[in-house]
Structure formats: structure tokens, C-alpha cells
Write a structure and sequence with these properties.
Radius of gyration: 16 Å
Number of domains: 1
Strand content: 5-15%
Number of helices: 5
CATH topology: Leucine-rich repeat, LRR (right-handed beta-alpha superhelix)
Low-confidence stretches: 130-137
Order of helices and strands: HEHEHEHEH
Mean pLDDT: 78
CATH superfamily: Ribonuclease Inhibitor
CATH architecture: Alpha-Beta Horseshoe
């Protein structure tokens, strides 16, 4: 890729991300046996994470690492919904260093508090957007 311009590289990376998202989503929906998925620092974006969350209820995925992906509350809520469905097999979930905010954290807490089987939850270095705001006098 060194011969490509910066704009060309971005376009190629974007096409790759879209294809990768589509492939992962289709594979997990088709019942493929994928038990561990590590997408740390992959910039999968909200669309990619939501596609994975939607596939959680029909997959046998037990370990999911989405650290450092700039994901927000909507993604945390989508994952919480999948966990709340009762069909997700997830045991380990790592959302560290994302911006899920208090609403996303609450959605996860509610889903996990209802007896879900997640045994390891990574939420280190969370950015809580609503708590970062400062009052101005």
C-alpha cells in the first residue's frame, strides 16, 4: 500500500473494513463455529460492532474483545440486548477503553444482573462522556 496516496489508502481500508464486517456478520449468523473474536484496536465502528452484537444470539461465540474501538452507548445497548435474549453463549466480554457512557453501562449491568453467564467483563479505562462535562460558572 506504500504506492497509494493517503486518500487511496483510506478508501482501500474503508472497503476492507466493510467487507470484513459483512463477512464476520454472515459467518456468525450462518452458525459457523467461531468461539473467540479479538478485534482490539480495529476501528470496526458502530456498524461492525452492532452487526456482531446482532449475531451473538445465534452464535457460539464465548470470547469477544472490542477494546479501543471508540464504541458508544448504542453498541453497549445492542450487546446488552443480545445478552438479555438468553441465547448468547458469551462468557468473556471486553469493552475497555470505549465511550459507552452511563447509559451503556446501565444497559450492560441490567442484562448481566439477570443471571447471564458472563464470567469475565473488561470495562477498564472507560470514558463516561456524561461525567466528563464540567459546569461553567
Amino acid at each position: 500500500m506504500s504506492g497509494l496516496s493517503r486518500r487511496g489508502r483510506r478508501r482501500l481500508e474503508s472497503k476492507f473494513k466493510v467487507r470484513c464486517r459483512e463477512y464476520l456478520s454472515s459467518q456468525t449468523r450462518s452458525g459457523a463455529v467461531l468461539i473467540s473474536l479479538d478485534l482490539e484496536r480495529n476501528r470496526i465502528g458502530a456498524k461492525g460492532a452492532k452487526a456482531i452484537a446482532a449475531a451473538l444470539s445465534s452464535a457460539v461465540l464465548t470470547d469477544l474483545n472490542l477494546r479501543f474501538n471508540s464504541l458508544g452507548a448504542a453498541v453497549a445497548k445492542a450487546i446488552a440486548e443480545a445478552l438479555g435474549s438468553g441465547r448468547a453463549a458469551l462468557k468473556t466480554l471486553d469493552l475497555a477503553a470505549n465511550d459507552i457512557g452511563p447509559k451503556g453501562a446501565k444497559a450492560l449491568a441490567t442484562a448481566l444482573g439477570s443471571g447471564k453467564e458472563v464470567t469475565r467483563l473488561g470495562l477498564g479505562h472507560l470514558m463516561m462522556a456524561e461525567t466528563r462535562r464540567r459546569k461553567r460558572c
